[in-house]
Amino acid sequence: xxxxxxxxxxxxxxxxxxxxxxxxxxxxxxxxxxxxxxxxxxxxxxxxxxxxxxxxxxxxxxxxxxxxxxxxxxxxxxxxxxxxxxxxxxxxxxxxxxxxxxxxxxxxxxxxxxxxxxxxxxxxxxxxxxxxxxxxxxxxxxxxxx
Length: 146
What we know:
- The protein is an alpha/beta fold.
- It has helices spanning 14-27, 39-45, 66-73, 93-101, 114-125, and strands spanning 5-10, 31-36, 54-57, 84-88, 106-109, 139-142.
- It is globular and about 35 Å long.
- The termini are far apart.
């Protein structure tokens, strides 16, 4: 039996969160989701929640942007070994490089379609994150419309 995958989603956009929640729940019923409004929220509650197996992190957020959050996560005793998926509408080569240099494992440019989002998330979930079977190479996933 597949063990439950615990995923933290750090994103201030409620519409994005609803889409991610729907996509993740239609892909698998063995996923537990916890939402955080921003990086401060994640870091402030890290000691009180189930440690996630995977973190989805947006770049553009109030108070603390995703790259600053990523850097802090990678220095946090409980969170530093958790794989990070950047899930953002920002596509800039310098930002992608900064994300990978700061410890991100995957960079996803948000798709404009539900089907595209599902395909991208399925690619991410094809990795065995629970057992830390993390790809050695960084991955940039961008949906190519048919």
